[in-house]
Design goal:
The protein is 73% helix and 3% strand. The chain has 568 residues and is mainly alpha-helical. Among the domains are: 127 residues, Tetratricopeptide repeat domain (Serine Threonine Protein Phosphatase 5, Tetratricopeptide repeat), CATH 1.25.40; 162 residues, no CATH class.
Length: 568
């Protein structure tokens, strides 16, 4: 005689046909005994097994018919059970919206007073919360998925339900795999109902042990990678981080899990630090495996990681070669976004190598692909890169964002003239996104000769320079250097300050630039200044060992550091 437990074991052992047969037997017996809840459980299992064989439509029909029968009988517990199964089947069909609707309907049913006992309520609510979390996850709603997963985990912990905890932890692990560590951590922290499962080494080890004990390889691998390995890295223990990353990588390999393998490779490369040879060997090993499996998408991603590894070690020629190989693989596929991103990275590498014309060509190809595929975010990125490179080449009028940049510069002048801080910062952010202008144009926009209150202008610029530096989107390591608009602003502010003090330096003697660097410690800040050599000199200057303007600018550096936000 078949039982519900034997049917569940058959499904867990990847024997869905056997599970279907056993579930049907249980449902028939339960109907004869008028046990509506057992019927609902058996039919739910039958539906899940049918979906596992690819029979999603049949599964939906079976579940739908039984749900209607349960509604007619007024059995809310049976309805909630079937709705949880329907949510999972809808998700297997790729319909996240319908899956969320079924899960939400089930939650509303069991929230009604008197619908069922506290224990029955908890078991079904846990099942529905996990279904809802998975549906949110499939729909790209990371924060909503984190909220549902947290509710499920809190409920399971309260009931000392290890299987329930495992299911909730699995969803949280998928958050890291789908959205990356930073976004997943933020979402989980925002919805936290207790200690974060992957926040510390201890909690990560505990989560990984539970998932391992219950046979959840994907969850265990994610816990090892995003919990244990990351915690080891934060503690400065690269060797043990490597061990955790390799363990995760091996588990993901067993599962043929491309996303997980790539995430594990990225963490492994990071943990190897300055060991360039080991990092390259690890990347090339994964690349060869993807090639042997015929996984072109995996190869493309591995080549990108390989390129990043080379870039981090200033091996730009090798990085360029890796990116070109990735392009060959991705051409002709439907992955237009990936091709465009690779071309933009290639443009960056070529520009760094001094091959600016080649960089322009690569960036323009990315722009064409982005436009033809109607990828708005990629279009904006490509326009910005092409504009920057065209400006660098002196082809100002060929910058795609040129007109918008000119309008923004005019608005910047008006905002500074009117001392409108909000508008000023908004325009500064827009200029960063645009490119298509020169540093001299930024300085010209900020040095307002006919402003009657020059001291007020300097104070306004200084105050808003610090506000822009402290903005959420500002660089963590340095603000000013590498940003044309911030470089122009800090430079204009420095020499406006000198002019207010009675020292009016000419253009050839304005060679000092200041910026701010954030240190490793909490709130640690450092000021820095750099000097730009003249590209050409008069005859008398060429006969000297040092360019005369540089001697003056060395003294200006102290003022530049102070204006960058540092106190002396």
């Amino acid at each position: 005689m078949s039982t519900l437990e034997s049917a569940r074991r058959s499904l867990a052992k990847s024997a869905p046909q056997e599970a279907i047969r056993e579930a049907k037997e249980v449902a028939t017996s339960a109907r004869a005994n008028k046990d509506l809840q057992l019927v609902a459980e058996a039919v739910s299992l039958q539906g899940l097994a049918l979906a596992a064989t690819g029979g999603v439509v049949e599964a939906q029909q079976v579940l739908g018919a039984e749900l209607n029968a349960s509604r007619g009988a007024g059995d809310q517990r049976a309805q909630a059970t079937l709705l949880a199964a329907q949510s999972n089947v809808a998700l297997s069909a790729g319909d996240a919206k319908t899956a969320r609707r079924f899960a939400s309907e089930g939650r509303q049913l069991i929230s009604r007073r008197g619908a069922m006992s506290e224990r029955e309520n908890r078991e079904l609510l846990l099942r529905l919360l996990v279904a809802e979390a998975n549906a949110h996850l499939a729909g790209g709603a990371g924060e909503a998925a984190a909220s549902s997963a947290w509710e499920a985990l809190a409920l399971a912990r309260e009931a000392h339900d290890e299987e329930g905890q495992c299911e909730a932890l699995h969803v949280m692990a998928l958050l890291f795999l789908f959205f990356g560590r930073t976004a997943a951590q933020k979402a989980l922290e925002g919805a936290a109902k207790g200690e974060l499962p992957f926040a510390s080494l201890e909690s990560s080890n505990q989560s990984a042990a539970l998932l391992r004990r219950l046979g959840d390889k994907e969850g265990e691998a994610a816990a090892m990678l995003f919990g244990v390995a990351e915690a080891r890295l934060q503690h400065g223990n690269g060797l043990e981080a490597q061990g955790a990353a390799r363990r995760a990588r091996d588990l993901f390999r067993d599962l043929r899990h491309r996303r997980g393998r790539l995430a594990a490779l990225q963490t492994l490369v990071t943990s190897l630090g300055l060991d360039t040879l080991a990092a390259l060997e690890a990347t090339e090993e994964e690349l060869r495996l993807f090639e042997s499996e015929g996984d072109a998408a995996g190869q493309v991603s591995a080549f990108r990681i390989l390129a990043d590894t080379y870039i981090a070690r200033a091996l730009y020629g090798e990085a360029r070669s890796a990116l070109r190989k990735a392009l060959e693989l991705v051409k002709g596929t439907a992955a237009a976004d990936s091709e465009g991103e690779i071309l933009l990275l290639l443009a960056q590498v070529e520009d760094t190598m001094g091959r600016t014309d080649a960089a322009v060509e690569s960036a323009q190809k990315a722009l064409v692909i982005a436009k033809s595929s109607k990828l708005s975010a990629l279009v904006a990125d490509a326009r910005r890169v092409v504009s920057r490179l065209q400006i660098k080449c002196g082809r100002v009028d060929q910058a795609p964002n040129r007109r918008d940049a000119q309008e923004a510069l005019q608005e910047l002048t008006e905002a500074a003239r009117n001392r409108d801080a909000d508008e000023f910062q908004s325009v500064m952010a827009r200029l960063e996104d645009l490119s298509g202008y020169t540093e001299d144009e930024v300085k010209a926009a900020l040095i307002i000769q006919d402003d009657d209150d020059q001291a007020g202008l300097v104070q306004f610029l200084k105050k808003n320079q610090l506000a822009v530096q402290a903005a959420p989107g500002a660089s963590k390591k340095s603000v000013g250097r590498g940003s044309i608009v911030m470089t122009g602003m800090s430079h204009a502010l420095l020499y406006l300050s000198f002019r207010m003090g009675g020292l009016g330096y000419g253009p050839r003697f304005r060679r000092c630039y200041g910026y701010r660097v954030e240190g490793e410690g909490e709130g640690a800040l450092y000021g820095a200044a750099w000097l730009r050599l003249l590209s050409s000199q008069e005859e008398w200057g060429r006969r000297m060992e040092t360019q005369p303007p540089i001697l003056d600018s060395m003294q200006h550096s102290l003022n530049a550091i102070e204006l960058a936000g540092m106190t002396m």
